């Protein structure tokens, strides 16, 4: 009877070790819960506890690493975006003109006490003009880098098309402003 019990325990441990090896080959992070359907495996077994602890320590360490790197990469993304904004406001005259016009419109809207919906429309129009100017500048710089100093008619056309997109958004913003402010001024 004692020999049968020892044999069953050894066979259970051998099966358990084979399952662990198989799982490790599949590079799974699951713990001993994946063995819940198996019979003859004692979860109070030290081997299972040790494996669970090792897996969880590794999983927690990996998760902390990923979270730390994720936060760091998000902060870097924000830093780079702010550097881009600083560059464009420092070097581009048109963006400063759009920003000055936008601030003037917001102050006028605040003074005239426009409704919340109208303020949202004004803000959306102002931001769309600024964003289209930022995209315009980025694409123009990219085209200049690719083309170099030599003139190419296709690059000129591409720059003109991009500038027309900024012009259309600025016209749209002006029309929205005229429609909204006309009822407060007249």
């Amino acid at each position: 009877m004692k020999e049968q019990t020892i044999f069953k325990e050894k066979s259970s441990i051998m099966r358990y070790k084979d399952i662990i090896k198989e799982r490790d080959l599949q590079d799974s992070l699951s713990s001993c819960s994946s063995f819940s359907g198996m019979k003859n495996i004692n979860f109070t077994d030290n081997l299972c506890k040790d494996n669970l602890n090792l897996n969880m320590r590794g999983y927690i360490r990996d998760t902390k690493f990923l979270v730390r790197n994720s936060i760091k990469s998000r902060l870097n993304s924000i830093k780079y975006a702010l550097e881009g904004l600083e560059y464009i406001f420092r070097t581009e005259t048109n963006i400063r003109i759009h920003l000055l016009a936008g601030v003037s419109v917001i102050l006028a809207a605040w003074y005239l006490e426009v409704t919340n919906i109208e303020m949202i429309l004004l803000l959306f129009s102002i931001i769309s003009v600024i964003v289209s100017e930022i995209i315009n500048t980025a694409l123009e710089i990219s085209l200049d880098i690719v083309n170099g100093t030599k003139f190419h008619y296709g690059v000129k056309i591409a720059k003109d098309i991009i500038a027309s997109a900024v012009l259309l958004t600025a016209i749209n913003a002006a029309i929205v402003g005229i429609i909204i402010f006309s009822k407060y001024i007249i």
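DSSP finds five helices and no strands in the chain. The helical segments are 2-25, 46-91, 93-112, 116-147, 153-185.
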